[in-house]
């Protein structure tokens, strides 16, 4: 049974002139969180979510991104302390750096023919203080840990993230830095220059609630 917040308990124990007045007060107190209460299933909104990376290359740094993202998460947006589970997947062949030749090299380095999908499975989600709900105008800071699979190799990685409510949906962002060699990937070389081992990886997700 969900524990009643002491502030809400005080409201319920206070005599009110009518049932209508009580309802109005509760709606004012709960606000948009009322519609997001209870554990729900959340999925990426097509075309409005992306995964990206930044690579350091001496002549000119470059970035890449993918929007062909699938996934599913379960969370109670009004109380993240109850736990968050889920996964996110990206098709390697949909990633683009804006250069066809470089993209082909990237697919080869990532062994896309043998491992066409990269994925991340959540293990834990932590915030400065739980229980904690998601707000509409203020970011809730998170530390997200999970199993990240790239080129068929899995490693546990942590992302610094944040979440807020955006037009009734969850807007979740995060970033991390790690080495390609952690996943058995040898940084590619172009002419006399080699891409630096460390890369930055980020995600920007707009999640909508599903039944």
Summarize the structure.
With 211 residues, the chain is of the alpha+beta class.
Could you please describe the fold and organization of this structure?
The structure is a single chain. This protein is of the alpha+beta class and 211 residues long. The chain has two domains: 1-30; 35-210, Lipocalin (Beta Barrel). 16% of the residues lie in helices and 44% in strands. It is built from four helices and twelve strands, in the order αααβββββαβββββββ. It has helices at 6-13, 19-30, 33-36, 100-109, and strands spanning 40-44, 50-55, 62-66, 69-75, 85-91, 117-126, 140-150, 153-166, 169-179, 189-190, 193-194, 198-210. The strands form two sheets. Strands 1-4-5-6-7-8-9-12 form an eight-stranded antiparallel β-barrel. Strands 10-11 form a two-stranded antiparallel ribbon. β8 and β9 (169-179) form a beta hairpin. The longest helix has 12 residues, at 19-30. The protein is elongated and about 55 Å long. The two termini are 22 Å apart.
């Amino acid at each position: 049974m969900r524990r009643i917040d002491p502030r809400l308990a005080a409201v319920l124990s206070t005599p009110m002139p009518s049932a209508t007045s009580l309802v109005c007060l509760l709606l004012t107190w709960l606000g948009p969180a009322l519609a997001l209460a209870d554990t729900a299933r959340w999925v990426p909104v097509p075309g409005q979510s992306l995964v990206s990376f930044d690579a350091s290359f001496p002549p000119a740094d470059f970035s890449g991104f993918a929007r062909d993202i699938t996934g599913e998460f379960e969370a109670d947006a009004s109380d993240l302390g109850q736990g968050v589970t889920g996964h996110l997947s990206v098709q390697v062949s949909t990633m683009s750096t804006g250069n066809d030749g470089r993209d082909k090299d990237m697919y080869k380095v990532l062994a896309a023919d043998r491992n066409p999908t990269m994925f991340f499975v959540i293990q834990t989600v932590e915030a400065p203080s739980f229980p904690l709900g998601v707000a509409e105008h203020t970011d809730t800071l998170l530390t997200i840990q999970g199993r990240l699979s790239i080129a068929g190799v899995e490693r546990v990685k942590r992302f610094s993230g944040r979440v807020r409510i955006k037009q009734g949906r969850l807007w979740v962002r995060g970033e991390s830095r790690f080495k390609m060699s952690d996943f058995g990937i040898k940084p590619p070389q172009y002419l006399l220059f080699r891409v630096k081992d460390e890369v930055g990886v980020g995600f920007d997700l707009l999640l909508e609630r599903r039944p």
